[in-house]
Amino acid sequence: MKKEEVPQDSCKSYSGHKKLIYAVGDEGHYEGVKSSGWEVEGFATEMAVKALDEQLAQATIDYQQGKVSPLGYYIPLFRFDLMSLAHATGFFQWQIKRHITVKVFNKLSDKKLMKYCTVFNISLEELKKPVIKS
Question: Which of 94, 99, 102, 115 could be cross-linked to 89 through a Cys-Cys bond (beta carbons 3.0 to 4.6 Å apart)?
C-alpha cells in the first residue's frame, strides 16, 4: 500500500487515537504512517466486541444460576480463552475446564486459586465471590 492510500476513516474503536501502519513512501521504502482507521477493520472490531459482550452476559447468567464457578465469569470478563489462560497460569486447558465446574472449583487449594488471582489481578476474596455489576 502506498503512503497516500493509508485509510483515514476515523473508526470509533480507535477512540480518536491513531494507529501506526507501514506503507511505501515516495522513494519506494517503507515508512510509518498514522491512520485514523479503516471502516472494514472498525466494523470487524465492533462485531468481535459485541460477541465478547454476549459471552460475558451469558457467563454472568450462568454464574448467578450456579451453573459455573467464578472462573466461568472471570474468563470472559478479562477477555481470556482457554489457551491464553492456560499459558498465563500454567494449568492445562482440561484442568481449567474442570475448574470452571462449581464442585471442582470449591475444592481447589488457595495456592491454585492464587494463580488465577495473579493473572486476573484480583484478590482471593474477589475470585471466590465476584461482585457482578449490572
Answer: 115
* Domains located in the chain, CATH noted: 3-37 (no CATH), 46-128 (1.10.260)
- Residue partners of 52: CB distance under 8 A and separation at least 6: 76, 79
* Continuous segment of H or E residues that includes residue 23: strand 19-24
**CA distance linking residue 124 with residue 109, whole number of Å:** 11
Within the chain, which residues score under 50 in pLDDT?
none
R_g of the chain computed on alpha carbons: 20
| Alpha carbon distance 105, 111 (integer Å) | 12
Cell of 22: 507501514
pTM above 0.90, yes or no: no
DSSP single-letter state for residue 37: B
φ, ψ for residue 33, nearest 5 deg:
-130, 135
CA torsion through residues 63, 67, 71, 76, sign: negative
Q: In this predicted structure, what is the pLDDT of residue 125?
A: 96
Please say whether the beta carbons of 93 and 86 come within 8 A. yes
